[in-house]
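Let's practice the habit of predicting before peeking. Look at the sequence and jot down your guess about where helices and strands might fall. Then scroll down.
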Amino acid sequence: MKLSIIIPALNEEGGIGAVIDQIPLQKFASMNIETEVLVVDNASIDRTSEIARAHGARVVYQPLRGYGNAYKAGFLAATGDIIATGDADMTYPFDALPKIIADMIKHGDDFINTDRLSKLDPKAMLLSHVFGNWVLSTITRVLFGWPFKDSQSGMWIFKRSILERMDVRSNGMPFSQELKIEAYLKGFKCVEVPIEYRMRVGEVKLNPIGDGIANITHLFRKRFTYWKRSTPAMPVRSMQS
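Done guessing? Here is the structure:
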């Protein structure tokens, strides 16, 4: 089995090396899981790519700026059976992946979302971002009936084979919520796992107002244009880490 870990990065020279070093490659090897680390350089103007290569990652260059654009390039380049994602700013616990993936394999799950909010350290996320996440997650539950708590989490683990059945079109920040919506509505076996969300290293790039409006607009557009499910949505299995 092979795991592809995809990390989008835009001017993240301050944290990218430490993020890559946090990935427990030896633990994955002991689980008979081959691991590749892909850093998607989304047109950085600093030393992000250079540092990523020095720490053993394969760098994929995506000149088209945008969160979704970065991930689309990463997905195309990935060769693993399982894909795991996370940001390049030290906020996501890549060291927690072995347990998450072991449970995923054990239970036959297709898609795992991570919940940053249940165990949230108040220092790790601005109150405005917590509120915005709650608003977006609530709207998503109302529009699509899904049970996830964290619609904006950037760490997902899923079988690469499900990508061909998901219609994810966003090129920007709404990519994250659209991926989760598609996984749920297409009937894949989904799980949400609470994780430890950590303090950020480097510049905050999220625009609470602009990105929030874009995400809300995307949710309503998605709802009113989504007319057919491939299969009935399945319940989300609860899972505690």
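How did you do? The helical segments are 16-22, 25-30, 48-54, 67-77, 97-107, 127-144, 175-185, 208-225.
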